[in-house]
Structures are given as C-alpha cells and as structure tokens.
UniProtKB/TrEMBL annotation, chain A:
Transmembrane among keywords: yes
GO MF term list: cytochrome-c oxidase activity; heme binding
GO cellular component, one term: membrane
Alphabetical keyword list: Electron transport, Membrane, Respiratory chain, Transmembrane, Transmembrane helix, Transport
Coiled coil: none
Protein name in UniProt: Cytochrome c oxidase subunit 1
GO BP terms: aerobic respiration
Domain of life: Bacteria
Automatic annotation (TrEMBL), chain B:
Reported function: Subunits I and II form the functional core of the enzyme complex. Electrons originating in cytochrome c are transferred via heme a and Cu(A) to the binuclear center formed by heme a3 and Cu(B).
Record-given protein name: Cytochrome aa3 subunit 2
Alphabetical keyword list: Copper, Metal-binding
Catalytic activity line of the entry: 4 Fe(II)-[cytochrome c] + O2 + 8 H(+)(in) = 4 Fe(III)-[cytochrome c] + 2 H2O + 4 H(+)(out)
Species whose genome carries this gene: Lacicoccus alkaliphilus DSM 16010
TrEMBL record, chain C:
Keyword field: Membrane, Transmembrane, Transmembrane helix
Transmembrane segments: 29-51
Protein's name in the database: Cytochrome c oxidase subunit IIa family protein
Length: 559, 165, 54
C-alpha cells in the first residue's frame, strides 16, 4: 500500500497518486482555487482604484485590500499549491505516503487553514493593514502575527511528512538515484526549512511579544533582515515546483525525454545553496547595513542566476529535440512541431516566455546601486507579476490541468482543454499589458504600494495615471482569466469518472541510466554547504544590528 | 555536456561577471555605493534634539567634498522641509531620518531613493546638475496618508547667495 | 541490481552520452544567444539610465 516504487519501475503508467494521498492533495488544491478567486478580485479592485475612476465602497481601505491580496496570493495560494503538488509528486514517483506521513500532511493542512482564517479575520476587521511583509514598526493585532506563524508551522508539518516519505525510499534503495521529482521536492523542502528559521525567530521573539505589549520596542533593522532572509528564498520556493514541471513533466507531455537528469539535479542544488544568503538584495537602499555586505550578497545573488541559464538551455534542447524527432530540419522550425493545442503544454510555455523579461528584470533589480533606479517603484510590482504572477502561476495552472482529473479519476475533455487555452491567452494578454505598464511607470518613478494620488498636481504624477489606466485594463482581463480558471478547475474535478483517468506525466531523462552522482545525493553535505553560505552572508550584518545599539521603535497603527 | 551548452554557460556567466565588475568599479571608483549604506544611529524619540534635524533644510556643508547638507525629517504623513531650493551644480549630502515608522525617500527622476528607518540616519551624496522642480514622495507604505507625503526640491540657476539660510 | 542489469545500464549510459553530443541543437543555441543578447542590451540600457540620473 505505502510501498516504495522500485527503481526499475519508476515510469510505469501504473504508478498513480494514491487515492488517500489524493484526498489530501485535493484538499490543498481547493484552497488554491478559493484563494485565486479572492486574491484576484482584490487585485482587480486595486487596479481600478489606482486608475482614479473608482472608489472602494463600505469603508474598505486600499491598504487593507492590498494586505489581503498579498497574503492570500503570495502566501496562502502558493503554500497550499506547493504542499499539494509535492505530496502528489512524491506519491506518484516514490510511492504512497504511510499513515504517519499522511497524517503530518493533514495536520499541516489544518494548521495552515486555521492560520489563514484567523489572518483573514484580522485583515477583514482592519486590525492588520500592514501588508504581507508586515514591516515594523507598523503594528498589527498580535493574532495576525500568530496566525502567520501558525501557517508557517503548518507548512513545516507537511514538509516533515514529505521528507519522511522521501527518506523511506532512499533507505530501501540505497545507492540508487532517488526519483527526480521526489528529489526536487525534497530540495525545495530543505530550503524551506532553513530559510523559515529566520522569519520564525523574528515573529516569535520580536513581533509577537511586541504586539502583545510584553516588550516596548522592536529592532526594525533586525526584523527586516530576518524577514528577507526568508523573503527571497520564498520566491524560489514558489518557483521550484514550476521548474519541477518544466524539467520532469513537460517532456512527457511532448512525448519525449527530458534533457539531463544530472543537470536538473545540479541546478536544484544551486538553488538550494544560493536562494537564502541573498536576501539583502531586497535591502540595498537601507541604512544599517554596510556596503561591503550588500555587495557580497549581490555577488551571491548573481550566482543564483546560473541555474536559470542552465534551465533555459535544457528546455530549448528538449523542445528542439522533440521537434527534430517530428521531422523538423531547419534552424527554428521545430517550434512549429510543439503541441500548440495542448493546454498542459501551452500554459507553462506562456509562463516561460514571461520568465525571459522577468529574469532579466531581476538581474537589473539585484544590480547593487542600480537598484536605486527601481527600488519600491511599481517596476518591482511589474517584475514579480511576470515571475510569480505568470511563469509560476501559469505552470501551476498547467499542473492542475492534469493533476485534478488524475486524482478525481476523470479526464481532460476537448472542451476543457480549450478552456485551458483561453485561460492562458487571456492571462497572457492581461498580464502583458498590466506588467508592461507597471515597468514603464516604475522607470518614470511611480511608487508601489500607493493608492490613487495626484501628488498635489505634479506633472509627473499625471503621466503615472495614464499608465495606471492601462494597468486597470490589464487587471480586468486578468480577472476574466481567473473566472475561466475557477470554472475550469471545478469542471476538471467534477467530470464523469472513467477507468483510465488522466495521466500524471513524468518523463525519463536522456541520461536516466547514468550512474548516480554521489555528492548530489549526499544531503548532509548539501545542508552543511547551505548553512555555511547563510552564515557567511549574514553573521556580520546581523551581529552589527545587535552591537551597534540601534534604538528600538514603538509600535504604530497608522491606518 | 553538449558543446553549445558549454559555450552558452560561459557566455552567460561571463556576462554576469562583467556586470558585477562594472558595478564594483562604479561603486569603488565613482563613489556609487548603494544609498544609505553604513550605520549611524539616532534615537527616534529625540530626533529634534539633534542640531541637524531641529530645523531641517539646506545648510552649507562642513564635510569635505560637499557644498551643502540637505536634512529631511520624515514623519507620518509629511516631509520637512516641504519645499527647498538648491543651487544648480552643487554637491549635496542628503541626510534623512524618521520620527515614527519606515518611510521611503524618493526624489522622482533621480537616483535618490532610499529607505528611512527609525533609529538610523540614511545618507546619500549627490549632485543637482539640472534646473527644475523635483517631486519628493514616500515609496514605502507608512499608513493611510502615505501618498500625502510630498516635498519639492527646486534646483535653481546659480546666482547670488539665495541658498544661505 | 543483477550483473546483467548493470551491464545494460552501462551500455545505455554510453549510448546516451553519445546521444547528447550528437543532438542537433543549432536552434537551441540560436535561442539562448538571442536571450543573452537581450539580457546584455537590457542591462546596459538600465545602467545608462542609472548613469544619466546620477
């Protein structure tokens, strides 16, 4: 029942997500669909407010709505999706979870659900309009911080169950390569456990006592630095499940093999190493940190670009190889051979296109002093909407296309596939328009996280408003796409049952039979290097925040 | 590894290294280190007791290499001074502090863009070479009046001693 | 794993190594070079804007 899948049998079509695991996955996915709708509605309203043509009814505050949008999409949607997908990937490639592992998954699910509901109440009652980054010394109700902590603890439980499942496989088949998807999920989980230590410490030892009135003041620099130690790894936590699908699922959708197993593993290991000791690139324009340490983390940030360069090559290589097998002979005509009518391919592919400007924009953001050009302008909002808001989410959608029917025992019909295509194109148009307008407005100085304002009639603010109208048009298309998505996902779960449910595609790699690269499977070594890099990057800056006697700050509720 | 993959990875990492070298040279040799770097503390409750911030504005600088010091105090939800004139072509050391929460000090269409955090002084050296009115805004969410925080820096042609206070 | 299996694994490994270098990846190379050029142009564009506002 919860047996390990034999290494010779990894790609058998009989390997399915276990039905009990499936229920857990589905529970997580239902939160994803719900969060998508609520968060998307909030996003639409924000763009409308910023266009200057709409005012929020019922005394809802712009920043209240923005807090909701950030928490429910950046945290809730992504966390539930990642837990659900990784459990499915483990169940499919390593074998069903056992009782303890699955129970941990459920405990995690309920903790995350409870935390989400409490946070939602705090936001709804306007007790927590501090945005999802909750920068001190704006002070929310203590329950908001406790709720966020509970959500994180929930992910830890789920992650613990997943890691136990992975280790169980590894123990039985010592010396074998662990199944690629289970390996990748474990890398993501280990990264998550390491990176959340900082933010958890900050919430437990700084925010909660301070918001309860047990302590009077808070060390703002320290809280921000601990937040971003987690905050940048967070974006890779979102991205790696998408990369899992790009490396290991998409080739099978095309009907071919993945490019390289060892390259895929290597790129994930590089993500593990370099996702965490780079958070200060979000604090490049802050006081309290010496220029040297900012510079060092910029260099480390550039190291995390390397695995994405590798990924780009291997994806094109898979597409080209497939196209050539299908008879393409010219330089670029293999593009035509790709399955342009298959939503499972088209959705992630559109996401990849967004990742080209998204990645390049990221390099610009992280470029040390150049960050002053764009810091806290709406360029940054444009940037993360074409990273997490397109490549990541469109790939999640592509995964849900097959995962939901795989679990509920139904199939993607032609009509649902077409809906998936419409979803992709509508999303692409809306996001393209909105994010382009955001990038250009940002270069002209328009700030992020700001409600509609004419800034005392300044001429430049007038220019920003033109872009904000375009953003509202883009936001409207995105909301239409979200409605399509919600309807699509509901139908994918509730279609007629069949004996041959939709496949969970997992591709073998061209070098599948190459011997195991030992150090890539040596977790002790990987964890030591990860922690070592974090210590190098953070020991001095954080020590200085204690030794330099930076005066603490009182809490403020300014909304 | 495929031959093309090797070439691509070399070109890719090569460009990244080139970017880093350019940034490093510009930081060290042209003085373009990231804004506000370094640690200078100030107690947020006693900002006004500091000579520089009791009446913030433009003052002749005693620092070597600077013509003026421009002091700003940020608080929810205003900037002091609300308007300031700076002679064209002057080299200015800007120092900004907050009396309450975190603010984002941004002078639109310039590279002056830095966080202001309670307990710390944010410093940035810059030149004002082009005549015009520059809008100062707050780009870090600080509360319900966040977008009301504005100021104007007027860069005026050099003539007379209009800059003395 | 039996010895036979190992042999087979080694054999297919050689074949696969062979495979990789024999793949026709001209198009891939063109695409990534295009990507690199885009990265180059965008970065220097931003850097120029940064210097212009200095």
């Amino acid at each position: 029942m919860s047996r390990n899948i034999h290494p010779d049998n990894l790609f058998s079509l009989n390997n399915r997500v276990d039905s009990k695991d499936g229920r857990l996955v589905l529970a997580n996915m239902i939160w994803v669909i719900f969060a998508l709708f609520i968060g998307g509605a909030a996003g639409l309203l924000q763009t409308l407010v910023r266009s200057g043509m709409f005012e929020l009814p019922f005394g809802i505050g712009y920043y209240q709505l923005l807090t909701l949008h950030g928490v429910i999409l950046a945290l809730v949607l992504t966390f539930f999706f990642i837990m659900g997908f990784q459990i499915a990937a483990l169940s499919k490639t390593a074998g069903a979870l056992n009782r303890t592992e699955r129970r941990l998954g459920w405990i995690g699910f309920w903790l995350m659900s409870a935390g989400t509901l409490v946070a939602a109440v705090m936001i709804a009652t306007n007790e927590a309009s501090v945005l999802y980054t909750f920068y001190a010394p704006l002070q929310a109700h203590a329950f908001y911080y406790i709720a966020l902590a509970v959500i994180i603890v929930g992910t830890w439980c789920s992650v613990a169950g997943q890691l136990m499942r992975y280790i169980r496989w590894k123990r039985e088949f010592r010396g074998h390569k662990t199944p690629l998807l289970s390996y990748m999920a474990s890398i993501n989980n280990v990264m998550w456990l390491v990176c959340t230590i900082g933010v958890a410490a900050s919430v437990i030892f700084q925010y909660i006592p301070w918001s309860l009135g047990l302590t009077d003041r808070i060390n703002v620099s320290l809280s921000r630095t601990l937040f971003w130690m987690f905050g940048h790894a967070l974006v890779y936590f979102w991205l790696l499940p998408a990369y899992m699908a790009w490396y290991a699922v998409l080739p099978k959708v095309l009907g071919t093999e993945g490019f390289s197993d060892s390259l895929a593993r290597l790129s994930f290991v590089l993500f593990l190493f370099f996702s965490i000791p780079v958070g200060i690139h979000h604090q490049l324009t802050e006081p309290g940190i010496d220029a040297f340490w900012k510079g060092l983390q910029v260099v480390l940030t550039f190291a995390v670009i390397v695995p994405s360069l590798m990924t780009a090559f291997s994806l094109f290589a898979v597409f080209e190889t497939h196209g050539r097998q299908m008879g393409a002979t010219g330089l670029l005509d293999w593009f035509k051979k790709l399955p342009w009518k298959d939503a499972r391919f088209v959705l992630p592919f559109l996401g990849m296109l967004f990742f080209i400007p998204g990645g390049i924009g990221g390099i610009i953001n992280a470029s040390g002093q150049m960050n002053q050009l764009v810091h806290n302008t709406i360029w940054v909002v444009g940037h993360f909407h074409i990273t997490v808001g397109a490549p990541v989410i469109l790939t999640y959608f592509g995964i849900m296309m097959f995962l939901l029917p795989h679990i509920t025992g139904t199939r993607i019909t032609k009509q649902l596939n077409n809906m998936g295509l419409y979803l992709g194109y509508t999303w692409t148009f809306g996001m393209g328009l909105m994010s382009a307008a955001m990038h250009f407005a940002g270069l002209r100085g328009a700030p992020r996280r700001s409600t509609y304002s004419e800034y005392g009639g300044a001429g430049i603010a007038d220019e920003w408003i033109t872009y904000q109208i375009l953003q509202a048009v883009g936001g409207t298309f995105l909301f239409v796409a979200i409605i399509i998505a919600v309807l699509l996902f509901i139908q994918l779960m509730t279609g007629p049952k069949t004996n041959v449910p939709e496949e969970f595609p997992v591709a073998p790699m061209m070098d599948q039979n190459a011997p195991v690269t030992k150090w890539l499977e040596n977790w002790r070594l990987l964890i030591i290097i990860t922690v070592f890099l974090v210590l190098i990057a953070y020991t001095v800056p954080i020590t200085q925040m204690f030794t330099e006697n930076i005066p603490g700050a009182h809490g403020y509720k300014l909304w | 590894m495929h031959k093309f993959e090797k070439i691509w990875m070399s070109i890719g990492t090569g460009s990244l290294i080139l970017f880093l070298v350019i940034l490093g040279v510009s930081a060290v040799h042209a003085g373009h280190t990231p804004a506000a770097s370094g640690i200078e503390t100030i107690h947020p409750d006693y900002v006004r007791d500091d000579n520089r911030f009791s009446e913030p504005g433009l003052y002749e600088s005693s620092e070597e290499g600077y013509d003026y010091d421009l002091y700003y105090v940020a608080s929810a939800f205003r900037y002091e001074p609300a308007e300031v004139e700076v002679p064209q072509g002057s080299r200015v050391r800007m120092q900004v502090v907050t009396t309450d929460v975190v603010h984002g000090f941004q002078v639109v269409n310039t590279n002056i863009n830095m966080m202001v955090e309670p307990g710390l002084v944010s410093t940035y050296g810059t030149n004002f070479n082009t005549v015009g009115e520059y809008l100062v805004i707050c780009n870090e969410y600080c509360g319900v009046g966040h977008t009301d925080m504005t100021s104007v820096i007027k860069v005026v042609p050099e003539e007379g001693d209009a800059e003395d206070e | 794993m039996t010895e036979k299996n190992e042999d087979r694994a080694r054999e297919s490994l050689e074949i696969h190594e062979e495979d990789h270098s024999k793949l026709d990846l001209r198009g891939t190379f063109t695409m990534v070079l295009f990507l690199g050029a885009l990265m180059f142009v965008s970065w220097f564009g931003a850097f120029m804007l940064f210097l212009g506002r200095m």
